[in-house]
Amino acid sequence: MTEFIIYIATSLDGYIARSDESIDWLNSTGEEIDQDTGYTQFYESIDALVMGYSTYEQVLGFGDWPYPGKLSYVLTNQNLSTTTSDVIFIKSLEEVIEEIIKRGHRLVWLVGGGKVISPFIRNGLVDEYHIFLIPIILGSGISLYQSLPEVKLQLIETKSYSSGVVELHYRKISL
After folding, report:
1. What distance in Å separates the CA atoms of residue 136 and residue 173, rounded to the nearest whole number?
2. In whole numbers, what is the pLDDT of the chain averaged over residues?
3. Could you tell me if residue 4 is left (phi over 0), alpha (psi between -120 and 50 degrees) or otherwise beta?
4. Which residue in 93, 109, 132, 101 sits closest to 42, CA to CA?
5. Residue 122 to residues 8, 32, 34, 95: CA-CA distances in angstroms?
6. What does the pLDDT read at residue 31?
7. 36 within 8 A of 159, measured Cβ to Cβ
8. Would you tell me how many other CB atoms lie within 10 Å of the CB of residue 96?
9. pLDDT tens track for 117-170
10. Which residue ranges make up each domain of the chain?
């Protein structure tokens, strides 16, 4: 059975990027998080990633491809190609789910952005939420939660870091 997991940082007011798609505020605490946030362990546990084209473009700007050895599905309506063997461009939510099930992926990280993650939430597909709250209020930007119905979650754990970042770990409530 496939589980879809959100592992993402947001501002206190729920934005994942500024209106211009900038994420410069992510290090707004002025210091590196001095404790292990569990990213390495999380990353090693996943089988595949799903992201939108804007997130993909932003990731490419970081330098070397940061997700080697993990199949990355990029949702886009554009006809694109890449020389990276572990990136697949795919056109719809239905197609990506079909491909993920066909390949037998067990844990899938929904990387971003909000336009990609929200349909997964809306369709009840997200099993776990790891939301890292960055201590900043942006006031506007690109919301993680885009036109969603009410979703009830069960709190699993909270962690706080000396940088002021707080991790909220939720699981969806099965009805």
Report:
1. 29
2. 91
3. beta
4. 109
5. 17, 34, 35, 17
6. 53
7. no
8. 20
9. 999 999 999 999 999 999 999 999 999 998 899 999 999 999 998 888 999 999
10. 3-24+36-172
pLDDT digits (tens, 9 = 90+) for 59-71: 988 888 899 889 9
* Superfamily of chain region 3-24+36-172: Dihydrofolate Reductase, subunit A (3.40.430.10)
pLDDT tens figures, 75-93: 999 888 887 789 999 999 9
Q: Which two tokens mark 157? A: 């754990």
- Cα–Cα dist 86/73, whole Å: 8
Residue 158's Cα: distance from chain center in Å?
A: 18
State the DSSP string of 78-117.
S----S-TTEEEE--HHHHHHHHHHHT-SEEEEEE-HHHH
Helix (H) or strand (E) holding 75: strand 71-75
